[in-house]
Structures are given as structure tokens and as C-alpha cells.
Amino acid sequence: MNLGQQRAGLSRRGFLVGTGGALLAFAAACSSSGDSGGDEPSGPLVAHKYGETQVPVDPQRIVSVGYNDHDTILALGGTLAGTFDWYGDYPYGVWPWAQDLLGDAQPEIVGTASTNIDFEKVATVGPDLIVGTYSGLTQAQYDKLGAIAPTVAQPLGFADYGVPWQDQTRVLGTALGKEDKAAELVSAVEKQYADVRAANPSFAGKTVLVGALKGPGQFGVYGPEDPKVRFFTDLGFVNPPVTQQITGNFAEISTEQLSLANVDLLVWYAGGGYGDKLREELAKTPIYQELDVVRAGRTIILEDAAAEAMAWSTVLSLPYALTEIPPRITPLID
User: Fold this and answer.
1) 248, 304 in Cβ contact below 8 A?
2) Residues 247 and 172 placed together within one structural domain of the fold
3) Which CATH number characterizes residue 152's domain?
4) To pair with 145 at 20 to 30 A between CA atoms, which of 64, 126, 188, 250?
5) Is the distance from CB of 67 to CB of 110 less than 8 angstroms?
6) What is the pTM of this model?
7) Are the C-beta atoms of residues 115 and 70 closer than 8 Å to each other?
């Protein structure tokens, strides 16, 4: 994430949970109208962090409150009624790699990284399914959403914002009744990963650390469950011991702790136009300049569309990242 996204990441931990009486009344009406006496066929049970949710058969009005869930919904052929606008200046929060699949649909923006989830807007959209697998939904938020429509939260067993793209695709495939399509999508991307690994045997077993600028003179590193880190470990790289201390997807480190970055490859994520600011901060950090990995020229700053495709880490974005990024890091490792 870039600096703006780090701020968004901080705001993720404090989603707004207060809503007015109008929302509660609307949610009650939605819940009541959705209970048709049990004659309608039941969809699958989908497990997640807060239990299990029975989703409707063939949902037609899907609202994504996850940061990147709408990519996978579109890839599976789902119909979006609402989306979460993570970052970037794109209509409906949908990035270029997914816009063709959006077609003429005009989903409502139901939240942003700066304003968080707008529960009243979610209710007004009238969803029949709400999903937030790449999210940090709290129990309270899940309860409020669940009062509006069946809600699938982030999967149990992973850090918030840490679901692997394979698991996300399979979970949403189950929720949409598209298990076979989900399997096809996962297989296609996994084959691309396998092809890249085969073409770059030097990646295997090399240690990698992925960092970002958090603020003036402040840096952070991503944990093993962050999608950007998984992008590299899925290519054969391994996590250094220092990352074992990270329990979430991102941890701030002091300037002195930069000395722990004794790895084979140091990647800086600086999407969103923060590359120049990152370079400025690194240039005036003496400890960083003394690192072996820096002296050996085994560092790279990712800051373009390929970096964003890596950050999103969905079945729609990863093919582009896998085409663009490996050729840039091969010369640093070989």
C-alpha cells in the first residue's frame, strides 16, 4: 500500500458502526420481507469468521463491502448492486482489469476507505447478498449488515485483509453457486504462477521483505498473510524470520529496525504516486543506505499499474502482475 492506503488501512480498524433509526427500520423490513415461510429453495451455507450464513439461490443484487471482492464477483459472473471504493479514480470503484466485465452496470458506491461503510446506503440498495471477504468487519458491523441481507464476512483462520486470493475465489464461488467457475479461475492463475516459477528457478528459497512508507520518516513491513507478500511467496520466495512477529497484515517499524531487513530481495510498494516521496525518505535514512541488500542493488520500488494489480491480488488483477513484475526482479536475483 502507498501512504494514502496506509491511512486507509488505519481507518479500516475503525469502521463507522452508528446508524440511525431509519436504517434499523429499513433493515427490519428487508429481513421480514426476505422470510417467505421456507418454501423457497435454500442456497449453500457459507462459513466465515462470525459463523455460517445461508445465502440465497442465484443472488441477483450483490453488494460488496470488501475492499476488492467486486473483482471476483464480476469474474464469477455475478451482478453488482453496490461496491466499496477502495482507492483510485475509477467509476464505481472498478479498476481497468475488471471494467469490461462490469459492462453497463452502475453499482452504488456503499463505502470508501476514507468514509467507511455507509450502512444506510447498503440498506437502500436492497441487496439479496452482502459479501466482505477481503475486509476487517467487526462483529457489530457484521450484525448490522446481517440485519439487512445475508452477509458473508472474512473467512476464519486468516488475518483481516489477509484471505488468499484462491480461498476468496472459492468462498465467493460457493456463495454465488459458481463452484465450477471458481475452480476454473483458480486453476488458470495457478498455472500462470507455475509457469513463472518454472521460468525463474532462482526465485526458489530466496528471502523477501515487502515494505511501504507509512509517513514522514516512518516505514512499515507487510506480514506473511498480506496479499502483496503472498504474491512473492507464491513465486517461490520465502519470508524472513522477522516477519514471524507480525500478527496482522502490516506493522510499523522504527528506523533502527530497518537493520533487520537482511534479505535477498527488498520490495517497496509505493502505488498511488508515492514513489518520489518514498525515494526522498529512503535517501535521507543512513541506516537504510548501509543495508547489505541496498548495497548489493537487490531492491525495487513498485509504483505503477502492475504494483496495483499485485496489491489487489484477485483472479482478475494477478495475470497482469504476473506478466509485468517477474521480469523486473529476475535481474536482481540471478
Assistant:
1) no
2) no
3) 3.40.50.1980
4) 250
5) no
6) 0.84
7) no
